[in-house]
Structures
1.
Amino acid sequence: MFRRTKSEPSTVESTDADATAISQGKGRPTPSRREAEAANKAKAKVPRTRKEQAAAKRLARADAGTRMREAMRSGDDRYLPARDQGPARRFIRDYVDSSLMILELLLPLMVVLLVVGWVGGRNAAAFTNLALLLMIVVIFIEAVRLRFTLRRELRRRFPDDPKASSGATAYAVMRALQVRPWRKPDRQVRLGQQLPDRYR
């Protein structure tokens, strides 16, 4: 009448299963307290809401801008804009910065001519137009000269890079037209400095 129910075998079976699970373990070592805290911090840093994601993007953009401005000063190739990256571009910048060129005098002269043409009369305006035309001719001649000299130097310094001279003339002319203290990325060589044969 007071017989035991059939729950005992199931209890025994569950006890055996727990013992087997304990003997087998969970398959991975228990993380230390430091590792657990680091994992919790990493989870907390992940932006969850849209506002947090926008703030994270703004922070990333600001950080990238800071690195790029610092690279513009130091010449660090990793954070420069794509148009300025690579050893060939660095050589072109150094080649232009180490040489005194007529092109760098044209921009200040152009400003002076525009002021003279605006302040002066009709004769001054005619003279300004003629001078500006001559400046365009000078830019063309200097661009042709730079094309030949740069291609020769790039072939000598970068024989294994067939794309080293791609866009080199335009890049050099645009840098040479800038006023020397305002050039970006900043100058890394002095005027008249001897350039190395190999750029890495």
2.
Amino acid sequence: MPVPAICFDLDGTLVDSLPDIIASQREAIAEHGLPVPPADLVRPLIGLPLEDTFARLAPDGDPAALSASYRRIYPARFTRSSAPFAEVPEVLATLRERGWLLAVTTTKGTAMARDLVTALGLAEHLDHVQGTDGFPAKPAPHVIHRALGALGAEGSWMVGDTTHDIEAGRAAGLATYAVCRPEATHPRDVLASAAPDRLEESLHGLLALAPAQTS
């Protein structure tokens, strides 16, 4: 029988990386001489594909060119202020000790996602890192299916901080766990509108839902 797996979004779920992402997006827009939106308008769009994000933030710009600028800027600063949320290493380590397979399923490209989890010391707690490489992004379920296929696992939970994560998890047939932290990507009322199976303020609640696996 396949080993059960839990899929996690990365930015805003496992890692407090939004300030570096937002600053990089705003810098990319400024580099093109376009009006720079305030950070609170950028935050709700985190998790969308880059070109979709820039089409909304800078409608007079070229989304492809803005995305190219971001992809150059972000790797130069992606760990400037980013760090795992406080409970994340403990929760991931406990889940793996209990026999769960753990995957990242992110809209980031796979290479950048791997660089981030490695730089922040999370790679040792994960069985697979799956980015969105040339296929539809969340809320489509493709990234989840790719991760589970790579692991040969049966999905159990999708954990994320946006409605895109919740919708993708539901589309993939997983139970959904929404985490709503202070200054979350999507605020509590928006997350609640997606009707996740659980809505919590941290990942600690996941431990009560993921008991030790028996062979």
3.
Amino acid sequence: MQIISLLTDFGLKDVYVAEMKAIILQICPEAKIIDISHNIEKFNVRMGAFMLACAAPYFPEGSIHIGVVDPGVGTERRAIIVETQRSWFVGPDNGLLMLAAEKEGIKHVYEIRNKAYMRFQVSHTFHGRDIFAPAAAYLARGIAVSEFGPEIIHYTTPEYAKAKLEENQVKGEILHIDDFGNIITNISISELEKLGVSEGDVISLIIGKDKFQVKLCSAYNEVSKGEALAIIGSHGFLEFSVNLGNAARQFKAEVGKCLKISRKC
């Protein structure tokens, strides 16, 4: 049984998601379809990328993930399949898939051009149903990924897809701010290891013109109430938090803001 996951923005109402699932099951009746989320903020590619990157590692190897946060639908933006070391990602070439794909190690990227693996009539406004869902279903049927179209080497990789290690610091971005005000970055544990940072160390954090010193902890209550800390969240990214408080408010943080971290000497 092949697992196919779905992630869409809030703009795709229940009927449209049902249409995507129906197309998948027409082509591959044995597919098991799992919903990641259909509540991504409309047009918010960054939020969709973050949620997909959080969920994908917990799916079985060989799973197929469809992402549809697609404000560029109907334009010249390409439809792609990304093959990684452990799964496939199907969706628009707008950066939505790349945060998750980079974490898994990208092997190949293909543009979906072969009309044999699309719906017979492709609309201008719903490629999720007419291109992405059929492509995922045919992949699940065992069609070789190279059959869908040419391999491409130039594709959209947004800045937030990967933090950058420069000298003795890491440059990253704020990916997401959750309901608790936790600041979730695109910096992974591997970048911290390259800096020589481990639990118990103090991190220097720069957001805009403001500089902070925070301890890398293993639990929120390792610091006093109202005190800031750093922690590796369940999603595997570095986050900055305030124990029983709101880090985003305290640090004046916003999604998309650049930041720098280094180890306090």
4.
Amino acid sequence: MKKNDSLLIQTCCAPCLIYINKYFKTRDISYDSLYYNPNIHPYKEYVHRFTTLESFCKEENVKLHHLESFRQSDWEKQLDNCDFCYKLRIETTAKFAKENNYTHFTTTLLISPYQQHEKIIKIANEMADKYNVKFLYIDFRPFYREGQNMARDHGMYRQKYCGCINSYNSSKFKDKITFENK
């Protein structure tokens, strides 16, 4: 990125942002974060992830945009939830970036080894072309564990499933997931 470029990061949660934040700060690259995650189930989880991210962004002096987006009611009806979810979040990010004069966008989804990396890249490149804004690709997966350790050391809430109702229902940690006190 060049000096006058601006970056918007679609952020799913603070634990996925914490290493990426370190990466950009050590390279003196500033960015803004966008919390747009209509897939998170249930609403208490959606709010808990947002408030954790909000606290981290305040602490790190990162501008946070929040597009209220909870819409779980239609999520189970999607035939391929991951594709639907990726496209919805990435397209909204690219469009928001263009409308708000960012030169580049990316997503914290790129840090997770559990996400479908090639699909994310394909969709992001399509949205970059559609909205005439550059997609910044960096493979952060090798730093996933370091980021999770940083989040744990920081005392961050770390969720046990991707976010949608289907990932919640199929989580091997489902019996440990509780929504009280959130």
